[in-house]
Inverse folding.
């Protein structure tokens, strides 16, 4: 290509693309919720810690199947091999919400809603761009899986029902390639 031709070519330099992927995983949510209710071990007992409202995932058959299906679906969407960094059960009491935060340091994050009742509070994503705050609200649905970049700030709206809002969340890192033995 001649030097003049190269200058006539249009180049595209992508500065930012932030995508939230939405899909569904069909699983027996009644049984799953029964398994989740067995989880009463908090991730952190410090009321000032962001994991205070989160619980460890019990080692149950259906929850393990769901976690495998979430990993498979996320790898398919993201196009890379992943490994769990952590996962947890998030329980939001009536009139409560989750504060603004991100999961910086991980590759991507997810949230799965085994059930959702209208007015339990949507998932709100916040982007700070060019001096403006851009907010995108996604209203969850039963069996919905959302996958998003870990560094994106997000929070939930207030749970305006009398029922606890339950979701399963987690983070993935890119799988490290195995080192060759010499």
């Amino acid at each position: 290509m001649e030097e003049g031709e190269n200058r006539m070519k249009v180049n595209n330099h992508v500065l930012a693309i932030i995508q939230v992927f939405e899909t569904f995983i069909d699983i027996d949510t009644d049984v799953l919720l029964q398994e989740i209710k067995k989880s009463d071990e908090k991730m952190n007992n410090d009321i000032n810690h962001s994991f205070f409202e989160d619980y460890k995932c019990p080692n149950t058959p259906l929850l393990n199947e769901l976690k495998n299906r979430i990993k498979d679906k996320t790898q398919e969407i993201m196009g890379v091999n992943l490994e769990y960094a952590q996962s947890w059960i998030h329980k939001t009491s009536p009139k409560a919400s989750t504060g603004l935060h991100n999961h910086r340091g991980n590759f991507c994050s997810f949230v799965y809603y085994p059930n959702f009742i209208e007015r339990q509070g949507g998932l709100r994503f916040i982007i700070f761009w060019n001096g403006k705050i851009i907010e995108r609200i996604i209203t969850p649905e039963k069996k919905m899986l959302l996958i998003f970049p870990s560094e994106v700030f997000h929070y939930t709206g207030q749970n305006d029902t009398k029922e606890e809002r339950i979701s399963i969340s987690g983070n993935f890192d890119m799988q490290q390639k195995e080192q060759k033995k010499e």
About this structure: The chain has a mean pLDDT of 88.
